[in-house]
Amino acid sequence: MADEMIRTQLIVAEKLVALLESSTEKLLLIDSRPFVEYNTTHILDAININCSKLMKRRLQQDKVLITELIHHSAKHKIEIDCKQEVVVYDQSSKDVTSLSSDCFL
């Protein structure tokens, strides 16, 4: 878990726009907001994954793989590469270190 936090960083909207506009970066965008908010407006090609507390617990215990959730939630086939950049966003998180343990992010 500590190793995962080292690779985790907060990015601002402008950096995300730059990543999306550069053709060299292949991003996997995960929108973790409730479905209603996702359905109202979301980043093009983002996948909505909003889990129940039970599913979050199963993810934390490695009883289900995040790739299974992604494939289940995607509307089209997703190629997942272990070197691929992944951006997960929600409504308003501003500090990765202050997230609660039950937060999907």
From TrEMBL:
User: Which residues belong to any copy of the Rhodanese domain?
Assistant: 23-93
MF terms per GO, please?
MAP kinase tyrosine/serine/threonine phosphatase activity
Any Pfam family: Rhodanese
Q: Signal sequence: where?
A: none
User: What's the protein called, per UniProt?
Assistant: Rhodanese domain-containing protein
Q: Can you name the source organism? A: Apteryx owenii (Little spotted kiwi)
Provide the taxonomic classification: Eukaryota, Metazoa, Chordata, Craniata, Vertebrata
